[in-house]
Amino acid sequence: MNWLTKTLGSSIGKKLMMAVTGLSFCGFLAVHLAGNLTIYGGKDAFNSYAEHLHSLGPLITAAEIVLLVFALVHVLTGLTLFYQNLAARPVRYRINRSAGGRTIGSGTMPYTGIFLLIFVVLHLMNFHFVDKTDTTIYNLVSAAFSRPLLVVFYIVAMVVAAIHVSHGLWSAFQTMGASHPKYTPFIKALSTVFAILVGIGFGFLPIYISIIA
Amino acid sequence: MTKTINLTLKVWRQKSPKDKGHFETYHARNISTDMSFLEMLDVINEQLTLDGREPIAFDHDCREGICGMCGAVVNGRPHGPEKETTLCQLHMRHFKDGDVLAIEPWRARAFKVVKDLVMDRTPLDEIMQAGGYISVNAGSAPDANTIPVPAETAELAMDAAQCIGCGACVAACPNASAMLFVGAKVSHLALLPQGRPEAARRAIRMIREMDNLGFGNCSNETECEAECPKGISITNIARLNREFFKASFFASEK
Prior knowledge:
The structure holds two protein chains of two kinds. Chain A is mainly alpha-helical. In chain A, 77% of the residues lie in helices and 0% in strands. Chain A is globular. Chain B has helices spanning 37-50, 122-131, 151-161, 168-172, 179-190, 199-212, 223-227, 235-250; strands spanning 4-13, 22-32, 73-74, 77-78, 100-104, 113-115, 118-119. In chain B, α2 (122-131) packs antiparallel against α6 (199-212), α5 runs antiparallel to α6 and α6 (199-212) packs across α8. Chain B is elongated. At the A-B interface, α1, α2, α4 and α8 of A face α6, α7 and α8 of B.
């Protein structure tokens, strides 16, 4: 397995791991958003979506394990790259100026990433690792978002997530070598559209719940 | 009468690789706007010499924008603010009277500052060496077009081969990554039939050498492409990634 660890341990290999796990999370976000939209169908629609999801049993456990492993890979590799990239320029410039290549997304990836990690942990503590025996997920969600502070925190987190994926999505394709005069403009546009969908799609949910709750 | 301007320069001065280094302020007076940036530094240096002070050390050779020897970061921009222009081809007419310019060497762990604005770009040569040879007939010159290469492919290879190895991509990269340089060098051979036999070994060895030398990791910020004096595109980085994956996962090369 020497060649494999050498390949994945190289700079491009680490980026490949970031790309594959990152793209998987984009897929997860799309599914998660689709599921969450059932909230607009009302209390029963949302609760029955959650029930159906949990009735999948071992499939859900398997998916959770994969997500956890991917998250560990994404976070640890990301932190390694962040550290290495800082170390690659021990003396900084007196003046830093962009030539126009950087975007708000690309320039903030490690910071938005660390923020999202904190968000995900808090999010799981809010809605996943809680006792649900005497209550439904809908009740939990509407109770949580009756707190204005939490609504604001979630909206901020979703804007941060949108910024993160706006660079992450097309960057993953570039890293995997998928650059093509015909498809790259489409992939870049898709990144922007997906980022907006994530930001507005998830970001509006806490507002909606706090209004109807 | 040529137009002249006055500038304030804050120049990085460093006696030796071990010296900590600092900025020193100089006043450049009556600088003709027809001068190149390096000629402006020449004028400063003449005055410094007359004053009995140490002139500013900077690298240069052809002064025609094709050798890749010159380069400094001017107000945060490698080779200055003009697109696809090396420092020697940057003219003072692009600056305004009274401008304050911070002039620094390329900053990267892999490039040691030798003196002032001169840094050691040997690591780029070491990456090239790690790439190794290509198999060509060393006998008499072959007939033209014995190996067919589509004009479009030849153009892409030429675009990549335009890289002059100045290292502005490393200087511009927020991560001090050399991926545009390596991407260009791998691409210009990978695109041509003459470069295919050793393509796998070349991709793997050059990336390994790049990593060993302490360059950063590419995070697709695309600053390199925007600053490259030869306008080399990041599609070459994507091609390098493809070549590396092909070599690592499908070739027998270890």
